[in-house]
Amino acid sequence: MSQAPARHCSPAGVLTDRERLWAAMRELRVFTIRDLCRAVNTGKDRDAAISDSKAKDYLVGLVRAGIVGKGLTVRFEPMRFELISDTGVRAPRVRKDGTMLPESGRNRMWKAMQILGEFSTRELMHAASIPGAPVAYSEAKTYCGWLARGGYLLQSGERFRFIRARFTGSKAPQILRVKQLFDPNSDKVVYSSDPEGRDDL
Amino acid sequence: MSLVPNPGPGVAPLGNVAMCLSTLRRAITRPAHLPGIVVFYGPSGYGKSTAATVATIHCDAVYVQARSSWTRKAAHQAILKGLGVLPAKTVAEMSDQIAEELALSKRPLIVDEVDYLAERGTIELIRDIYESSQAPVMLIGEEGLPGKLKRWERFHGRVLDWAPAQPASLEDCKTLSELHSTKVQIADDLLAKVHDVAGGSVRRICVNIARIEEQAQVEGRDVMDLAAWGARELYTGEAPSRRRNA
């Protein structure tokens, strides 16, 4: 029961690996892992290339969740997959066992704060919590602190106000960790690692 | 994405939050032959935006807030931004994009401050989006919204449910005091008075709870009751009356 291909919508913003894979699946509809990686890795530099095993990891989850169908096993032929349930531009958040993950806590906070407009950390925590995936007070506090530093929120005492002009899109800003090697003798950062902590599931 | 909202235990402690959530869920789970637009309306200060937040988060909805400056193009762009879709160039294309994305993802759409749209013809674009996607749509606005929508007859017939926001109850008042006042306990008799002067407004209740907490901390009390509060003023939202000289 494949649907008519979606041609109208492509996702906004920078894409994570999984989002790139998902966009390629929506484009191809029927594919092997090789096809998928080829589609995703065109024009990208070597470092950003998505490996077969990363694609496979995501596919396993999608197959178990019933979003992607698996073809018949044919000897000496690569496995063919088919997208059977297209759920739109957002890449489905699946675990490897096929269960769905709710939206990340930070995404929920990001959404909640633009609706609330003016809020305390505690109010935001309550508003962004859902059954089975509560947001911790400390997490809400940390995130609001960073967003205030980034100029998304105005802080006055314990309350925050969301600056609507800074609503840049549906994806929540992410706090990244970068490890750096610093040489105090020459006062120089000698090496910076790739940023960690992106919301990449 | 899970499309049916989490049926988990009532996380919505306030009356209007529960009402808003159940109204949206009714639109999501409606039988196919029924219309899918619901309207949630009420005076400002009744906690509509808190209710809208919970409904948005629990049902994974797309939320947009209408502005007085909204043209058809701006409205479409704002909805696409909420959906995370790269907008096309023309309004017609954007309308298709929204319909397609809502239909595929089966997400509900919540439009706040609809009064701005109902005063002008822009409201029809919401109907277009609804017609072409059949996605559940919730409109949120001020008290007079149903009257304003009546002018748009083709719109009116597609409304499944009208949900008026309710004034805050004493029960809500208690929940709010537990939620906001973490350091000081406010006794029931004082809460009853807070509820009385608030006239149903969640906002006024919150202001008063904050005021009581502040005063209690100044005086070093853990509990504040009516006797301890005495004749001090509570915030009623009315402009102060003329001062009488003794």
Write the layout of secondary structure elements.
The complex is a heterodimer of chains A (201) and B (246).
Chain A lengths: L16 H12 L1 E2 L1 H8 L11 H13 L3 E3 L10 E3 L21 H12 L1 E3 H8 L8 H13 L3 E4 L2 E4 L17 E4 L4 E5 L9
Helix pairs in contact in A: 1-2, 4-5, 5-6
Chain B lengths: L14 H14 L8 E5 L6 H11 L3 E4 L6 H12 L7 H15 L3 E4 L2 H5 L3 H11 L3 E5 L3 H6 L2 H4 L2 E6 L5 H11 L4 E2 L1 H11 L3 H18 L3 E2 L1 H4 L17
Parallel strand pairs in B: 1-4, 1-5, 2-3, 3-4, 6-7
Please count the beta strands of chain A (DSSP E, at least 2 residues each): 8
User: Number of DSSP strands of chain B?
Assistant: 7
**Overall pLDDT metric of chain A:** 88
Considering DSSP H and I runs of 4 or more, what fraction of the residues of chain B is helical?
40-55%
Return the structural class of chain A: alpha+beta
The ordered string of helix (H) and strand (E) elements of chain A is: HEHHEEHEHHEEEE
Order of helices and strands of chain B: HEHEHHEHHEHHEHEHHEH
The biggest beta sheet of chain A reads: 3 strands, antiparallel
Largest interface pair: A-B, 39 and 39 residues
Helix fraction bin of chain A:
25-40%
Distance N to C terminus of chain A? 27 Å
Radius of gyration of chain B, in angstroms, nearest whole number: 21 Å
Label the overall shape of chain A: globular
| Low-pLDDT segments of chain B | 1-12
User: Using only CA atoms, what is the Rg of chain A?
Assistant: 20 Å
- Strand order in the largest sheet of chain A: 1-3-2
Describe the structure.
Chain B: InterPro entries: AAA_22, P-loop_NTPase. Chain B: This is ORC1/DEAH AAA+ ATPase domain-containing protein. Chain B: Pfam families: AAA_22 (PF13401). Chain B: Residues 35-148 form the ORC1/DEAH AAA+ ATPase domain. Chain B: It comes from Desulfomicrobium macestii. The complex is a heterodimer of chains A (201) and B (246). Chain A has 201 residues and is an alpha+beta fold. Helices cover 33% and strands 14% of the residues of chain A. Chain A has helices at residues 17-28, 33-40, 52-64, 105-116, 121-128, 137-149, and strands at residues 30-31, 68-70, 81-83, 118-120, 153-156, 159-162, 180-183, 188-192. Chain A has a three-stranded antiparallel β-sheet with strand order 1-3-2. A three-stranded antiparallel β-sheet of chain A has the order 4-6-5. In chain A, a hairpin with a 2-residue loop joins strand 5 and strand 6. In chain B, 50% of the residues lie in helices and 11% in strands. With 246 residues, chain B is an alpha/beta fold. In chain B, strands 2-3-4-1-5 form a five-stranded parallel β-sheet. Chain B has a two-stranded parallel ribbon with strand order 6-7. Chain B has helices at residues 15-28, 48-58, 72-83, 91-105, 115-119, 123-133, 145-150, 153-156, 170-180, 188-198, 202-219, 226-229; strands spanning 37-41, 62-65, 109-112, 137-141, 159-164, 185-186, 223-224. The radius of gyration of chain B is 21 Å and the shape is elongated. At the A-B interface, helix 4 and helix 5 of A face helix 2, helix 3 and helix 4 of B.
